[in-house]
Every structure is written in C-alpha cells, then in structure tokens.
Amino acid sequence: MGHFDVAYTITVSDWYHQQAPFLVNQYQAVFKEKGRGGLASLEPLPDSVLINDSQHFKFPMVPGIKYLFRIINMRPMASHIIKFEGHTMTIVEMDGVATAFTPATVINIAVAQRYLIIAETIANTDRNYGIISTMDQMMFNTPVSKPDPIVCGPIEAINEFVVKPKDNQAILDPVAQKVNNFGPMAHPFHIHGQIAQVVTQGTPGTLGHQTPFNGVYEQTPMRRDVLMVNANSYTIIRFKTGNPGIWLLHCHIEWHIEAGLVMTFVEDPVQTQTLNLLGSQDNYDICAKINMPYQGNAAGNTRDWFSMAGLATKPDKNPWGGFASCGAANCAGEEEG
Question: Fewer CB atoms < 10 Å away: N or C end of the chain?
C-alpha cells in the first residue's frame, strides 16, 4: 500500500429533497403528466451533492505529510469526478485490489466503486485547498440547469485502464462475458462474489449506433468488481470461477435496480446445492406481505419450471411496491401536500 501518516475516509453521495417512495413512483409510473424537468420516465436527479454527508466538510491537514484517503461512491446514481486542488494523487488500490502506484490529478469514481489514494501535502500554508467533486454528465439522459462551475483547472480524469494490478496478473484464458449497453447513458455494473478482469471497454457510441468491438484486449488488465459500461457501447470481463453460490450482476444505479436491470447467475450449481443456502425468514415474510412469489421460476411457477404462464409483461399500474404502506392515491396525496 505504501507509507502514509494519516488516514481519512471520503464518501460522496447524492442528496434528494424528496423521499424514495415518491421518487420511485415518479420513475416507474406507467403514465405521468410530468416528471423532473417536465420530462416523463427519466431517472430522478439529485438536488445536491454531499461529501461525508455534508456540504461543508473539512479535513485538517499539515504540510509535508502523506495522507491515505479511502474514497467511496455511495451515490444512488451519478459518477463523481474528483480532484485534489493543487495536489497529485497516487492510486494504490481500486475496489479492494492493490494496484501499481499510479499518479493522477483527477479520478472518475462510479457508483459503488472504491479507491485508495495517497496524497502528500505541499509546503504552502497561505491558503486552503479544495477537494473538488462534480457529477459526471454522462450519467444523465437530459441536460440539467446548473450554476457556473468553479474554475479549478482541467477535470479530465485518468483512464482507469492505465492502472495495472500490483501483482501484474496476466489476462485469463479466453472465456469472456460481454456486457452490452444499447442505451443513451452509462451504467456501472457490479458483479457479486467475484473480482473481474476488465479486458476491454468500448468508447461511448451514439444513439442507434453502438460502438463496434475493436478486437483489442488488455494483456495486464485492471481488476475490480464494479465496471463501467459506456453509453451505446460495451465492456468485456473475464474472471476465474471458484466461489460457488447464487450471485448478482446488476447496474448499481438504484433507479435501474428498481426497474429490473439485474441478473442472477449460479456458479457451480452442483456444489451450490450442497451449501444448503436459505434466506432469512424476514425476507420471506416481506415477500409474502407484498404478494411477491419467492418460489419457482421467474413467473412463480413451482410445478412446471419451463412455463412462463403468469409472467408480468407490463409495468404495474401501482408502482409504489413495498416502499409504502399506503395506496397510490393516498401516497399521491401526501406527495402533493
């Protein structure tokens, strides 16, 4: 990890002025008269940004000291572009994987990603230096009005593909998983139970024209468990199996999880059956209370596992789900009040 004198944790997060049930309803509703910005069916945009749950957080620092910062993106939606004003960061870890020491002036940290960086303070004590955090506009489907930005120099983030693992693990044998994105915004995908090699990533494409595969693989690829899939593009990962279980691969934008951008994969199903995995009774009770099947296939069929009879093919007209105990009309009334 390298020598450091003091350790701090930085969390970046979204702050919404409205409660989650109403925002989920706004996003999931089948018909809406209006949404945020007068547009329907768009992801709710955050009202502000927080660092360590505050807009005025300060880190006491002294000159000539090496500080380790654990940076965690806890946001439900946007990636963050982070810069230490007047200082250079040294990346030493990404998503729990030790990296070769890599200097950077700006990093882009997607939802659920984690970075460990070391920053050595300069000798100048004439002023304070800001930790600049701004939302990545690539994460939004529509332009948003915003004040004039603070002038803080260039904010082009380091290309994460130049950050190599400390152990220099070579690319794994060619059994790859390609995650395609045919939509207009980027998605941070989280793979559970694994650390994946990100062997290639397409540049952002344009609407209706996905970026074609360039045929190039990184030979010493970075490894992480949250990987970005650019708009109208793709990302290809490889990982070595050996962790039996039922794992998720999902977009970590919370609104997209609610909309079903989640898949389950079973690793080593024979060995997994011997583990006797059971959910907690609380989980079963919640499913029963909101009338959600927890047995059978995707349609809840327990006798004929190949039958999709009864599978929902249209959005629920009452999208409040398990977040609210009131009916849609009552909840709408609360929201208006």
Answer: C
